[in-house]
Amino acid sequence: GGTKVVKEPMGGLSPTDASRLFLNRIHRRLDAADLSAHRDSEDDAGAPGTSLVERTCWQLCSHPLMTRLAGHPGNICVAAARVTPGGPSLYALAAAEDLLNASEDAEISAMAGSPMRRLRSLP
């Protein structure tokens, strides 16, 4: 009918939305090693917002890791899956050559231990 499908380039998420998605998907609290090398404590005082989440989003907006992820939602989720207890700092992740490739094996391993690991064939 009356619908035409066209190819449109899509941009990434805004820095604020990308930071919020990242914070929602990580598996541990961020600590000083994740953010302190990027901003001085004097700069943090001028961060907009009053909540800890808003200040952390503001810090993440120009973090090297977020810059490398370029607002791509899929890449943000893959990188966030690597932020685990005892895992590397955000700076180490930003510098990792295998940032977006290494999580595939971890995802497969995690799925193997899940209750949904058995497949059934339908009649």
Could you tell me the radius of gyration in angstroms? Answer: 18 Å
Oligomerization category of the chains in this entry: single chain
State the total count of DSSP E strands.
0
Largest sheet: none
Topology (SSEs and partners):
Elements lengths: L14 H11 L6 H4 L5 H5 L6 H9 L3 H6 L3 H8 L9 H6 L7 H10 L11
Task: Explain how this protein is built.
By secondary structure, the protein is mainly alpha-helical. Helices cover 48% and strands 0% of the residues. It is built from eight helices and no strands. Helix 1 runs parallel beside helix 6. The radius of gyration is 18 Å and the shape is globular. The N and C termini lie far apart (36 Å).
